[in-house]
Design a protein that fits this description.
The protein is α/β, with parallel strands linked by helices. Helices cover 34% and strands 17% of the residues. It has an eight-stranded parallel barrel, surrounded by four helices. Strand 16 and strand 17 form a beta hairpin.
Length: 441
């Protein structure tokens, strides 16, 4: 050993070498992925402390990512009739190739292109996120949707909210929702949220390089609502008091939001849709919805939740570490003290958040998330929702997200937690159903 090397540094290096060697051997062992997961679960249950010590996970008071994994297998649940709240999961359709992404990011690009090679950036960092059950699926395969709907129904999820991409009559990533619309056997509620931003290279940090620009105008308002009406008319579309729920990501980008909402409402009344229920996502602002002519707003964590930065609590794995580490637990804890927002607001929760797959060593990572804390957050959000909305149609709680794999925000099962997050949704629904004092049904 070099005399300049401290014994502690040598031991840390040795531990890391042994850990990485064990992981490599484990991954290459010729057994099925499910058997590996079950073995890993039992191993952590019995030797979690020793394994974390070998892995070198820092034992920090506010970093609980070093706890043994809580893996939950598939469980066939009894359906819950008359849901006390409807849990709506935001849904990303970018899991199939399109010519534009081929041109911008490389041939065959999908969301999985970033997810698969993601690497941990600090000790105890959970990366990569590896999907189980459906694996690295293709959304142009009808069987993918069928299985996702089976999962969602089994665990009490009430619907999907598809991110929808429209650029002056040009649509992107539209094939999955068109496939959904064309197949009535996909019997599951849905709505759309227009992601009305320009597309840039934000994912890799270059926000100034615009790939596809939005050009909002009165003409585009009409073109959009006219085309979107095909979804609003569908019998599966989510409605509030019979009004189809139409959402928009950033109303502040519209030249005159009130004029846009009036055009949409007038067009729908004149073209057989009737009244519409308009909501906006609080991704970049927290303006009361009526200011823009909307009926409600939707929380979109982690945006606007004020989670503290705790980058100093982690140990980087490389010298070029530029990640921003925030405390996910803070957001969950804030749900213990909800206040009435003063306007119609649908609560939002997220299972976790980590965009390392996209931003690598410059990512934003929320640590200290786990399924049990998510369960408490969702429960608090649901109880608050029921206390503020007497109208059952407005008892909605949104989850970010069903499948944001490159942002580490997914309800879909992975090899670390399995179905734990989905099972906790079901458990919350069952608990509320069994406690009418919490929910005025």
């Amino acid at each position: 050993m070099d005399n300049s090397t401290k014994p502690g540094d040598f031991m840390a290096t040795l531990k890391r070498f042994l850990w990485n060697s064990a992981i490599t051997a484990f991954c290459s062992f010729p057994v099925s992925n499910e058997k590996k997961i079950r073995f890993k679960q039992k191993l952590y249950q019995r030797f979690g402390k020793q394994l974390n010590a070998l892995k070198g996970t820092p034992s920090l008071a506010n970093n609980e990512n070093n706890k043994p994994d809580t893996f939950v297998s598939w469980n066939s649940n009894k359906p819950v009739t008359k849901l006390p709240v409807k849990v709506i999961a935001f849904y990303l359709p970018q899991f199939h190739p399109i010519p534009e992404n081929d041109n911008w990011w490389g041939k065959g690009f999908t969301e999985w292109t970033n997810v698969k090679p993601a690497q941990p950036q600090f000790e105890g960092h959970y990366q990569p996120h590896v999907p189980i059950d459906l694996g690295y699926y293709d959304l142009l395969n009808l069987k993918t949707f069928q299985r996702q709907i089976e999962q969602a129904k089994n665990y009490g999820v009430g619907g999907f909210c598809f991110h929808y991409y429209w650029f002056n009559k040009k649509r992107l990533l539209e094939k999955p929702i068109d496939l959904y619309l064309e197949n009535s056997q996909l019997d599951f509620p849905f709505c759309i949220s227009w992601a009305n931003e320009s597309w840039s290279r934000r994912w890799d940090g270059n926000e100034q390089n615009v790939l596809l620009r939005q050009n909002h105008s009165p003409e585009d308002d009409i073109d959009f609502i006219s085309f979107a009406s095909r979804y609003l008319k569908d019998k599966r579309y989510i409605r509030i008091n019979g009004k189809p729920l139409l959402m928009i990501y950033r109303p502040d980008l519209l030249p005159d939001p009130n004029a846009t909402t009036e055009r949409w409402r007038d067009w729908c009344r004149q073209n057989g849709i009737g009244d519409v229920y308009l909501a906006y996502v609080q991704s970049f602002e927290k303006t009361p919805p009526e200011t823009y002519g909307f009926d409600a707003a939707v929380e979109f964590p982690p945006n606007h939740f004020g989670a503290p930065y705790i980058t100093h609590t982690v140990k980087p794995l490389n010298d070029n570490f530029k990640c921003n580490i925030l405390d996910w637990k803070f957001m969950a804890d804030e749900s213990e003290k909800y206040k009435h927002p003063g306007y119609k607001l649908f609560r939002g929760v997220c299972p976790s958040w980590d965009n390392t797959a996209r931003r690598k060593n410059e990512s934003y990572v929320f640590i200290n998330s786990n399924p049990e804390r998510f369960k408490k957050w969702l429960y608090n959000a649901a109880v608050d929702t029921c206390s503020r909305f007497s109208n059952e149609d407005e008892r909605l709680v949104f989850v970010n997200a069903w499948n944001e794999w490159a942002e580490g925000a997914h309800l879909e099962p992975d090899e670390k937690y399995g179905y734990a997050y989905l099972q906790n949704i079901y458990d919350v629904i069952k608990t509320l159903k069994a406690n009418p004092k919490e929910v005025k049904l």
